[in-house]
Write a structure and sequence with these properties.
Elements lengths: L8 E6 L4 E6 L5 E9 L5 H5 L7 E5 L3 E2 L18 E3 L2 E2 L12 H8 L2 E4 L3 H11 L2 E6 L5 H10 L9 H4 L5 E3 L19 E7 L4 H9 L2 E7 L4 H6 L4 E4 L10 H10 L5 E4 L1 H10 L2 E18 L5 E13 L7 E7 L5 E6 L4 E4 L14 H16 L1
Parallel strand pairs: 3-4, 4-6, 5-7, 6-8, 11-12, 11-13, 13-14, 14-19
Antiparallel strand pairs: 1-2, 1-9, 2-8, 3-9, 10-12, 15-16, 15-17, 17-18, 18-19
Helix pairs in contact: 8-9
């Protein structure tokens, strides 16, 4: 498949005053929010359809994007959630037997504003040196002063409860496992299945597939489902998903998690990790530029192993605020930020990254098995 040429101009402005011109490769119009950079070399479709990117535009640091097109089975949700896409160069050819359309055609059809032909290294360095920056991308406004003013007025993720905006409308059962074309680093569970209730704060499909693959019957519930409603379902365990926005704004989820701890085994990832930590009494804070990529080294203190992980978060748990019942279990070796914890007395643990990857390595897929084994150990102990 060949991408069509793009001559229509587009402009990107940051709140620090930087304005650059490029070419539009997506929908016409304007988009704004927080701008983050992702260092993954592949996985642009999964990134764009990850609900955790709601409220954020994404700069991809790898210079050539779109070379394998778009494949229907690689959607991590039913739509695009990233506010906008910024890349150096769009590949003129999409070569992939699984592909159904080109990236630029998909961007236009999905209504995603996107720009190519800009210096993504310069933009990334600005974010790294100055911290989180708000942005605007426009195909209709070329006035630098107007663009910078729009960037400064953009709504950031600070204090925003975005989980309630991306969650499902009602509960449903998820039964699908991995597609045949997906690699797997763990054995498919063949024995008796456990009942898992998964909170959807912005859950990716590959997370739900991973739970089914590991031996769970999964019921997905909306973000604002109460702990009483979940416990009434008599689950063997509860899963708290990833999601976008400021974890401290998800007060309803923090309250539900607080009520669940000690009553059922709980496993959380990303936003779910932050919500669990807040429920236990810790605090969260916004990072300078966050972790967004597929090559973050994490040390698992339980095994002593170092795993390469896929991460996507702009907030982090402040380890200095951890109460005595929280035990640190994982550390990000790039900056030594907290990457995982467990409860000292109850079957509860969480990690600040994506064990299902998509995109990224499968080093941490075993954590879903650890969740199952934790539940079984709890059953045997009773």
């Amino acid at each position: 498949m060949t991408s069509s040429p793009h001559d229509a101009p587009a402009w990107l402005a940051l709140e620090n005053g930087l304005v650059v011109q490029g070419r539009s490769i997506g929908a016409d119009g304007e988009a704004s929010g927080d701008l983050v950079f992702n260092t993954a070399m592949t996985g642009y479709q999964e990134i764009l359809t990850d609900p955790s990117y709601a409220g954020q535009g994404v700069v991809l640091t790898y210079p050539l994007i779109g070379n394998y097109g778009i494949a229907d089975e690689d959607m991590e949700s039913g739509r695009a959630w990233a506010e906008a896409l910024v890349i150096k160069e769009l590949s003129s050819i999409s070569s992939n037997h699984r592909a159904t359309e080109t990236l630029d055609a998909w961007l236009r059809r999905r209504g995603v504003v996107a720009i190519e032909g800009v210096d993504t290294r310069r933009i990334t360095k600005a974010i790294r040196e100055e911290g989180s920056l708000r942005f605007v991308i426009s195909t209709t406004d070329s006035d630098p002063a107007s663009l910078v003013a729009k960037a400064k007025a953009a709504v950031s993720t600070d204090g925003r409860d975005l989980a309630s905006e991306v969650t499902c409308a009602e509960s449903y059962s998820w039964t699908s496992q991995f597609e045949s074309s997906f690699p797997s680093t763990t054995e498919r569970w063949q024995g008796e299945r456990l009942k898992c209730v998964a909170y959807d704060f912005g859950a990716k499909r590959n997370i739900l597939r991973s739970l089914v693959h590991t031996g769970f019957d999964v019921t997905v519930v909306p973000a604002k489902t109460s702990a009483a409603e979940v416990l009434a379902m008599n689950p063997d365990g509860v899963f708290l998903s990833n999601g976008p926005g400021d974890p401290s704004a998800c007060t309803y989820a923090v309250e539900a998690a607080r009520e669940l701890v000690g009553k059922t085994p709980v496993f959380g990832i990303c936003l779910g990790h932050q919500i669990l930590s807040l429920a236990l009494g810790a605090k969260t804070k916004k990072m300078a530029f966050g972790h967004h990529g597929a090559n973050h080294p994490v040390r698992d203190e339980t095994t002593g192993r170092i795993e390469i992980t896929s991460q996507n978060h702009s907030y982090v748990v402040d380890e200095s605020t951890m109460p005595a019942e929280m035990v640190a279990t994982h550390w990000n070796l790039n900056d030594m930020s907290l990457a995982g914890m467990k409860h000292r007395d109850h079957p509860v643990f969480s990690v600040q990254y994506h064990p299902e990857a998509a995109p990224g390595p499968g080093d941490s897929a075993h954590l879903f098995t650890r969740f199952r084994e934790m539940i079984l150990a709890q059953v045997e102990a009773q």
